[in-house]
């Protein structure tokens, strides 16, 4: 029966991610157009738009992004030509893979916990994968060429194979391969993965001592060898870190200095030792990082407002409102429930490490840089659903001769249907109307209009008012 539900979930995930993928969102944005342009250039010439041979880092708009996603696009360009759909297809495929990976990761995490038949690892895994399949946060990034979502999928399988590697060493090699590839996909992984794997080494230290040393050594060697090209690229070209420096919380020190110089001078004048410590420039930096980290747990951002326009559906948060009470219940359940200590530590490690890369950048909270939060929100919510179900099932009270539990179940189902339907409408119908400008709608269409008639004119003039639009041409 669980296999039947699993394939239904995968079917739903495929439908939601592939239906109208070339038309919703309404247009490829600058980053998507750049990835498609570079992929086509590499496919036809072996060089990117700047003439660099088989680059592992794309200069793009001087943001120097990891280049693996562009290479993933190439097979689809060969099959379907260069268009919006082909640029987005790798993300959609990896989006479905993330749901499959979540199912098996959750089963692996909970299989050693002492659970009742109702709370079986399979049930938790099915619920978590279902919630990820319909998640606004995951769905919207699975339908656009944003590299972070591919990194998330690789990370889920990397964690799964790490845990499986404790019993069969060959999985360590697979884990390291996927983790290293993730670094070739998205910038934040350079911060996230080292911290995550250090945490996993601590959590599973006793198991690692008993694991195959040959396979562990082999995995380390493979990781080092695979890292050489990107390390070489970073060292050989100082501009490769330009983007990281540009989005750093400390990139513009003017605000920090303005704020601190006056306060610190006043503290010195008053011989206020505590003030001199608190208002120290370095302490101010630390406060900014902590504030950035905490901002990602803001309920209003998660459930109501969401991120910038390209990162959420109109009038929707990143998570469903119906998930909020269940999420809190699930966190309580995992903390105090009868689950394996290593399972608890692993899930909370992923959950707490996910915001770290974004916390040291500007523009926080940030849904893309913290996409590694997933699927922990869905795991918590799954545990909350099971706990709520069995609690409500035990209620004996009646309201107007109707058992209260039936009223509660009916109310929840109706709220779920409304919440889910509202999101589908906001994303697939309203988004193109409200957010078309944010998706640079019009540039691709303008180029398509001009292309058939360009030979009729001696010159075509294009404004340089927005200098990031060259990839559409």
Automatic annotation (TrEMBL):
Entry-linked Pfam families: PMT_2 (PF13231)
GO cellular component: plasma membrane
Record has Transferase as a keyword: yes
GO biological process: lipopolysaccharide biosynthetic process; response to iron(III) ion
Coiled-coil residue windows: none
Alphabetized UniProt keyword annotations: Cell membrane, Glycosyltransferase, Membrane, Transferase, Transmembrane, Transmembrane helix
Residue ranges of the TM segments: 5-22, 89-109, 121-138, 144-163, 170-186, 192-208, 215-235, 317-335, 347-367, 373-392, 404-424
UniProt membrane topology term: Multi-pass membrane protein
Subcellular location(s) per record: Cell membrane
GO molecular function annotations of the record: pentosyltransferase activity
All copies of domain Glycosyltransferase RgtA/B/C/D-like, residue ranges: 65-229
Protein name, as recorded: Glycosyltransferase RgtA/B/C/D-like domain-containing protein
Species this chain originates from: Candidatus Roizmanbacteria bacterium RIFCSPLOWO2_01_FULL_35_13
